[in-house]
Amino acid sequence: AFGDTDAQRAVRENDRNFVFHSWSAQGQINPLPVAKGEGVRFWDYDGTEYLDFSSQLVNLNLGHQHPGLVRAIQEQAGRMATIQPAMANDVRGELAKRIVEKSFDGARSVFFTNGGAEANEYAVRMARHHTGRQKVLARFRSYHGSTATAITLTGEARRWPNGTPDAGVVHFFGPYQYRSEFYSESPEQEAERALTHLEHTIQLEGPNTIAAIILETVTGTNGIFVPPPGYLTGVRELCDRYGIVLICDEVMAGFGRTGEWFAYQAFDVKPDLVTFAKGVNSGYVPLGGVVISDEIHDTFVDKAFPGGLTYSGHPLACAAGVATFDIFEEEGIIERVRDLASRVIEPRLREITAKHKSVGEYRGTGMFWALELVVDRDSREPLAGDAYNAVIAACKNAGLWPFAAGNRLQIAPPLVISEDDLVKGLEIIDAALDVADSYYTG
Ligand code: PLP
Fold first, then answer.
1. In sequence order, what are the residues at sequence separation of 6 or more whose Cβ sits closer than 8 angstroms to the Cβ of residue 131?
2. Cβ neighbours of 426 (radius 10 Å)
3. Vertex 124, ends 277 and 128: CA angle to 5°?
4. What's the gap in Å between 24 CA and the centre of ligand 1?
5. Ligand 1 pocket, 143 CB below 6 A?
6. Whole-prediction pTM value?
7. How far is the CA of 144 from the centre of ligand 1 (A)?
8. Which stretch is the leader sequence (predicted)?
9. Ligand 1 test: best mutation among 278, 281, 311, most atoms within 8 Å of CB?
10. Beta 368-373 vs 359-365: how paired, if at all?
11. What pLDDT, on the 0 to 100 scale, is given for residue 2?
């Protein structure tokens, strides 16, 4: 298809004329027509190649056109393409079983959705029915999806134009040592003070009004925040003390991204509900869901759960989910993420941070990292506007598609990336940061 200008023109025209895009002023965008994707790369119609350091929207954990995923979907389509959710289905049950088996002690069942926002909607609904309480505490600097409750939970600018579709949501600050709200001097102190702030929030809102606390176990789009020592166990303790349900949003962080099946597994914490999507089947067919604890499952044993979706547990999506588990085992995905993170990514990012004055800090885990770009290391003023756009453009011009968010260059390649490609991508980032340095004013 490369060089086929007629095909390219048709893709562009149909897109411009008929497709309404997310998060965009429709007259101000120029979406890239993509002709092909393979592994960790995709190409436009001119044959320009991009190394994908963003895994699309941090969902393409096993890369494009993984033969195991494609085969599973094809076989399932040939066998049974769809069946409604009130009936029992083999791949749906198999996937639920595998997810529960990899989940926390006391995980009991899975409710399937079509994506991450819906998963959070349903988790909150379950927590409300389970506790008989209405409020939900969510963090600033979070993204939980774009439907009514999910966008209200979201703790960043995308919430504002949508008003407050869910009046029961309250926001609090989480730990963020680099721009601390708590004047802390160590990660431990940051955790401790963030917990005090959370407990005060709970007390002032009224503990018996709060159904749930929801947090991204490792925050994604808003900056890759790995919880400091003691924070998550502290949140768990507060939830236990006040009878609050703990919801871990693992939509972005789950399924190997952090070098764990689920990110919470690195922190010795047991959630009550876990939401997932994206990496569960690399987005080959839309799928998300909620992992439900014994206690919350029990609430709905004799009482009906008031909610459902036509495509809950769609067989094509679930078949790709089951194949994901097989591929993770066959290809040792978790082990390779850990190995490449500690041997290649972390040392290289440390070096890059030492070399480029525009990098205020690097942080992350697994294949989930952020470089915080600043124009002054003392004031920590973020690199923004044209300067930031120039850095992103430099990456793209050199053939790397970065995960651009806020003032950060974030790094989240498919988990199947080879060491060579990882090194190559980090090389491009290193070079693009010369552009960031040229805007340094400190
Ligand atoms: N939660 C987190 C942490 C996310 O990163 C996202 C999407 O980026 C969502 C929820 C929403 O998922 P979806 O876009 O599938 O609705």
1. 211, 212, 243, 244, 245
2. 21
3. 155
4. 17
5. yes
6. 0.98
7. 5
8. none
9. 278
10. antiparallel
11. 83
Report the sign of the C-alpha dihedral through residues 132, 218, 93, 64, in that order: positive
Asked whether 279 lines ligand 1 (CB < 6 A), one says no
Q: Share the mean pLDDT of the chain.
A: 97
Whether 115 lines ligand 1, by a CB cut-off of 6 Å, is yes
What does the pLDDT look like over 180-230, one tens digit per residue?
Answer: 999 999 999 999 999 999 999 999 999 999 999 999 999 999 999 999 999
Rounded Cα–Cα distance for residues 391 and 356 (Å): 13
Q: Is 247 in the pocket of ligand 1 (CB under 6 A)?
A: no
Q: Name the residue with the closest Cα to ligand 1, atom 10.
A: 144
The DSSP 8-state label assigned to residue 225 in this structure reads B
Q: Which amino acid is at 264?
A: Y
Residue 3 has pLDDT above 90, yes or no: no
Residue 297, number of CB atoms within 10 A of its CB: 17
What distance in angstroms lies between residue 187's CA and the mean position of ligand 1's atoms? 27
| HSE (side-chain half, CA atoms, 13 Å) at 322 | 20
User: What pLDDT, on a 0 to 100 scale, did the predictor assign at position 1?
Assistant: 63
Q: Is the CB of 221 under 6 A from ligand 1?
A: yes
The tally of CA atoms less than 13 A away on the side-chain side of residue 169 is 24
Half-sphere exposure of 198 (CA within 13 A, CB side): 30
SS in 3 state form for 263-281? HHHHCCCCCCEEEECHHHC
Structural domains of the chain ordered from first start = 32-65+332-437 (3.90.1150.10), 68-330 (3.40.640.10)
pLDDT digits (tens, 9 = 90+) for 93-145: 999 999 999 999 999 999 999 999 999 999 999 999 999 999 999 999 999 99
Q: Is the ipTM of this complex over 0.90?
A: yes
